[in-house]
Please model this.
Amino acid sequence: IIDMLDDFYLVTFSFEEDNKHALFEGPYMITTHGLIVQRQSPNFLSNVKSVRQVAVWVCIPHLQIELYNEKFFVASE
Model:
């Protein structure tokens, strides 16, 4: 694990299976903070922080069945 500054870390895996697990088996949390995992990119700058999309899991207890549709769950842009 290499500290890249600005709250970024570079992690190298010995096995491709571990790499795939880290990328695709999330989401990950550290205490109450979400951890965003992404592939290394050649022009990565740790001081430029931008996230375009984040997949989230939301639990809505007792949601009425008539509200359970795509229109209800898709955010407007």
